[in-house]
Every structure is written in structure tokens, then in C-alpha cells.
Amino acid sequence: MPLPPRPAPGSPDAGAGHAGHQASHTRKDTDITPDTTKPPTRAQRLALTGALADDEGRLPADTNSRVLASLKTLGWITSLPGADPQDATGHRINSAGRRALFTATQWKALQEATAEGQLPAATPWPAVQALQGAGFAEYRDAEGRVQPHDHGGRNSAYLTHLGLRARPVPPDPADSGC
What we know:
Blueprint: H1 42-53, H2 65-74, E1 77-79, E2 91-93, H3 95-100, H4 104-112, H5 125-133, E3 137-140, E4 146-147, E5 156-159, H6 161-166
Antiparallel strand pairs: 1-2, 3-4, 3-5
């Protein structure tokens, strides 16, 4: 049996997916950062997260040269003065790089966390789960012990050490020299 003809572009049937639902290949606003067209790739995310783990915010030494070049192009890292431009450790994550790691909802939660790192109670559960899964947040009970989940709302979400490092920082004059 031959396949039915494809609908003409722009027709009401164009792009219809399974069960007549409109096909969508765009990401939701909460899935991307407002300042970028798309989120970091897995390799970019690993390099940026590795920089957050470093005491000085430097990229890991094993960062691929293509990833390094893309991070520079996107403005997510800052070159350190006098550093070899090809050496990943001569670059550090900047505020734009921190921001690129998170969705709008996650970034808002980081900004609104208390000084101790407690996330606002109004933070949507999926955002907390994503932060926890990436190592940026954890649940703690009333005694401050880390717990695997919120236990029906009895435990509170807090930023981990890595999450605290990811928080927005005051503008750094060196960031303008990307």
C-alpha cells in the first residue's frame, strides 16, 4: 500500500505528529537560558562544571581544544592575563558561564537562595530535582543531615558546595576582557 502524500508546507496538516498533535522541535523557555539560543553541550557543561569545582574557577586541564574555543566564542570563560591561549587552565568561568549552566527557573532559585544556601520553598520540584541530579543541590533534614529526597516535604533543599560556587557573583572587571 503506498504512503499518503505529504502535506504541503504551511497547510493545517503540516507538522502534525503522532495522534494529530502538533509537532514541536523548539525547547520550552524554561529549558534554555534567556541569554543563549541553546544550552551548553555535554562537553561544555563538563568543562564549566569542572571550573566551578576548582578553587580559582579554572577550566580542567583536559578540556578539549574545540570545547575551549567554543567557550571563548560564547563568552562563557575569561582568559587570565599572561596565560597561554591554548592552555585550558589559563581560563576561568565567568558570570555568563555560570548563567549558561542553568535554566531560567534554576537560576532564579540560585539567586533567591538564603546565605546558607537554602532554596526557596516555592522552587518548582523539577528544578530542584535537576539541580540535585547535577550535584548543585541536596536535601537536608531538620538536623542538617543530607537525605536522598524531600520525604514528602519534610526535608529542605539546599545548595551543595558546588551549587554555592555557581551562584551569581558581583561583576568582575576581568570578565569584560573575554
